[in-house]
């Protein structure tokens, strides 16, 4: 089955990078969004500027200041489902190394990258374009390489061997984000009034998927997107971006541009935290815009509970009421996106109880 699907992909596959490198003067019809879904670039409509929370994570290690930082995280999670972190402990050299390795990977000849292509979302290492090239109704201006990253020793041998620096440089970044995730999930648990080690065991045994994204320069960025509006399935996503392009939806359903701050990382709440918090926190809906002038790279480190481990609302946050969400696992999410269009209906909406 996988060989048949790969053969179909080989026959039809044309990546966004290939289109950009060919000098295409316009995007093909399959990338053109309906007018109501277009990003309204270059106008005052459709997106707004606002000040998003910036958290200095070094203060979490100061006993007298930790509670104040946790309160700031609580406010950021309630209002936006997102915040930026500085002084996060990942050295600039590790970040620069990861971006360099990604640049080299996406610059490889397409034949080399096609060795890793797959339409099977369960594959632990997968190269592709759009969201899922073989099933998308509308395509998105993105190339990606996704790979499982924790525990690193279990998966790294499956990662790309070309460029030769990829495993070392991206591996260092993956390990660093795993450590950072543990600190963040403790602080977020505290901010909900839970014990900071509420998810400790599940985090230690959990999964990490690294989605390395390339958004090439696009001849018509006003009629397409790099990624459609969606929320992430996991607990937290730690995002590194090489330039601005991420937008989030606020409570008024306005789109907010997330600024690029050199050296910072973006922390996004995922569906698992929304369920665990019983809806006190919401996973952030976000999308990615593209531009005419340059290529944008991002590393989305998606952290979740173990593949088959179910997450449900924390009893302490439900009280005497009925839970607002059903339970789910990472594997349930993968099964859902294999058979459904996530652009039409978010996975988490299928978990909401009628009483919520």
TrEMBL record:
<comment type="function">
    <text>Involved in the regulation of shoot development and salicylic acid (SA) homeostasis.</text>
</comment>
<protein>
    <recommendedName>
        <fullName>Fe2OG dioxygenase domain-containing protein</fullName>
    </recommendedName>
</protein>
<dbReference type="InterPro" id="IPR005123">
    <property type="entry name" value="Oxoglu/Fe-dep_dioxygenase_dom"/>
</dbReference>
<dbReference type="InterPro" id="IPR044861">
    <property type="entry name" value="IPNS-like_FE2OG_OXY"/>
</dbReference>
<dbReference type="Pfam" id="PF03171">
    <property type="entry name" value="2OG-FeII_Oxy"/>
</dbReference>
<keyword id="KW-0963">Cytoplasm</keyword>
<dbReference type="GO" id="GO:0016491">
    <property type="term" value="F:oxidoreductase activity"/>
</dbReference>
<keyword id="KW-0479">Metal-binding</keyword>
<keyword id="KW-0408">Iron</keyword>
<feature type="domain" description="Fe2OG dioxygenase">
    <location>
        <begin position="206"/>
        <end position="305"/>
    </location>
</feature>
<keyword id="KW-0560">Oxidoreductase</keyword>
<dbReference type="GO" id="GO:0005737">
    <property type="term" value="C:cytoplasm"/>
</dbReference>
<dbReference type="GO" id="GO:0005634">
    <property type="term" value="C:nucleus"/>
</dbReference>
<keyword id="KW-0539">Nucleus</keyword>
<comment type="similarity">
    <text>Belongs to the iron/ascorbate-dependent oxidoreductase family.</text>
</comment>
<dbReference type="InterPro" id="IPR027443">
    <property type="entry name" value="IPNS-like_sf"/>
</dbReference>
<dbReference type="InterPro" id="IPR026992">
    <property type="entry name" value="DIOX_N"/>
</dbReference>
<dbReference type="InterPro" id="IPR050295">
    <property type="entry name" value="Plant_2OG-oxidoreductases"/>
</dbReference>
<dbReference type="Pfam" id="PF14226">
    <property type="entry name" value="DIOX_N"/>
</dbReference>
<dbReference type="GO" id="GO:0046872">
    <property type="term" value="F:metal ion binding"/>
</dbReference>
